[in-house]
Amino acid sequence: MRPLIQEIQTAHTPESLVENLRGAAGVVLLRSALFDSRQARYSLVAAKPFLTFRSFGSRCEVFNAQLSTDNAQLQFGNPWHLLDALMSRYELLDEIDSPFPLGGAFGYWGYDLKNFTEPKLPRRAANDLELPDCHVGFYDSLVVFDHHLDKVSLISTGLNADGSRTESRANEQLNFWQTQLLINDLPPRYKDVEGSHSQPLSVSAVKPISNFNRADFIAAVERVQRYIRAGDIYQVNLSQRLTAQGEFSGWELFQKLAAVSPAPFAAFLDCGDFEIASSSPEQFMRLSGSHIVTRPIKGTRPRDADVTRDAQLAYELQTSAKELAELVMITDLLRNDLGKICEYGSVQVPELAKLEKFAQVQHLVSTVEGRLRRDITHFAAFAACFPGGSITGAPKFRAMEIIDELEPISRGPYCGAIGYLGFNRESQLNIAIRTAICQHGGAHFNVGAGIVADSNPAAEYEETLAKARGFFAALNLENGSTRVSRATAGGAPEASKSTISAAAKII
User: 3-state SS string over 229-261?
Assistant: First the structure.
């Protein structure tokens, strides 16, 4: 049978649909909030995965929603390989060409999966939130919002957990989505355009808690610079984790972030015990059949309402030797990553340091693309390039070693990826920055700064707080001020070496 694809007339937005789905298992929203970007044309909503995969190191859990038991099937091994094997069971490679996924694996892949891409990396950081390294649902149906054509489509494949496909399953899921999208079934507050963002979140304190105090973060920056001077590294991305306590859900935080900090690759994930709210501006990779694209962002300037001043800021960004050097370095790193999985001679850089303007900021962006070798699956390509070089440093392996040494708390989903790998080989993933984990009455979000030879350690600390302004605004917190949690405070471990110069800086 062929997947069922049905266009439907509805008054629902992606947000109002998710509001209707609250309480359903495994709700996912991948939200494009900047519709003029060709890379961010669609918003996707999925729910009720037929299979859920979670990993904790090499211990992997697989939950089958079509069985009467809630017990997980345990498997041990490399999560990348196990996920790739599962994907092969559900592939729909002979189906019609489609620019969006016909079902797929949706979720997050956390930063610590790097240890299965590079097995020799250490793993010292404490996973104090006890989060899985990845949380991935396999979905046989979804809703696609096409913001360019203003159309809404229902996708239902009829897939079952054993890989079989039945018409009854396809019609059942199609009917489920039709019911959810009834034109007159909008939640009341979405009938008022501003209603979903009008109420402030309830936060317990005016200052977030950090796992670093200012002095310890500055000391860690100085240790990175000693590594640079010693010739170990060119640049390292160093982050701190902020925590805000309060009575709000991840969905409420996501909506506030969408209002104050819209982004083309935003995401909301309901992972059961916790939720993820992301307002990421950066695409990690887009894969369509054998074609792969990655688009690193480096360099940022604010937008200005005054046209002349806005143009001045753009010129300043485009002529900054430091920003250009940074982007060129990361572009080259990603070109090398793609070279490991693409056909010889196919890797190209069609855009280098292109200026892209968003609602609040403007960035320099490069495009690196290639053609995958025939033996490389989308999961294999994803794993080979993971994590994105724009949020580790260069050289990549040594940068990750230093991050593990200096950051005492696991990054979790931060600096990993959120998105989907489609059963029809249509896949897209973001870089999980500007991302919060909501759990047990708190929101945890990392903010980082790129450390280079001439970095000012105090300024780098302030830069991390500046990057948290979207979260501060969403949570009504004091901007630029933190206190240190007794549970996680303390200096970073003493570095064994010193460090040398760099041409660039990681944002």
Answer: HCCCCCEEEEEEEEEEEEECCHHHHHHHHHHHC
Among the options 15, 275, 282, 426, which is catalytic?
Answer: 282
Counting Cα atoms < 13 Å in the Cβ hemisphere of 387 gives: 33
Give 415-480 as a 3 state SS string.
CCEEEEEECCCEEEEEECCCEEEEECCEEEEEEEEEECCCCCHHHHHHHHHHHCHHHHHHHCCCCC
22 neighbors 268 (Cβ within 8 angstroms) = no
The alpha carbon of residue 475 and the mean position of all alpha carbons in its chain are separated, in whole angstroms, by 20
- Distance, in Å, from the CA atom of 213 to the CA atom of 217, rounded to the nearest integer, reads 6
| Location of structure tokens 């109420």 | 199
Are the C-beta atoms of 399 and 321 separated by less than 8 Å? no
**Global pTM value:** 0.89
Residue with tokens 């260069």: 394
d(CA 292, CA 347): 9
Residue pair 77/62 in contact by the 8 Å Cβ criterion: no
How high is the mean pLDDT in each 10-residue block of the chain (507 residues)? 90 93 94 74 96 96 85 93 96 81 97 94 89 98 94 96 94 94 68 50 71 93 95 92 89 91 92 95 93 87 86 91 83 93 96 83 89 96 93 92 94 97 96 93 90 86 81 73 44 32 28
Q: How many CA atoms lie within 13 A of 171 on its CB side?
A: 4
Residue 48 known to be catalytic: no
Task: Classify burial at 250, counting beta carbons within 10 Å of its beta carbon; exposed 0-12, middle 13-18, buried 19 or more.
Answer: buried
Token reading at 200 = 């402030």
Bond preceding residue 387 cis, omega within 30 of 0 = yes
d(CA 279, CA 115): 26
Domains in the chain, start-ordered, CATH in brackets?
4-185+206-290+374-484 (3.60.120.10)
Distance set, CA 487 to CA 42, 244, 409 (Å): 41, 14, 11
* Residue type (1 letter), 92: L
166: its two tokens: 């039945």
Q: How many helices (H) and strands (E) does the chain have?
A: 12, 26
Active-site choice (252, 256, 275, 298): 298
Q: According to the 3-state scheme, what is the secondary structure of 81-122?
A: HHHHHHHHHHCCCCCCCCCCCCCEEEEEECHHHHHHHCCCCC
Catalytic residue status for 322: no
152 three-state secondary structure: strand
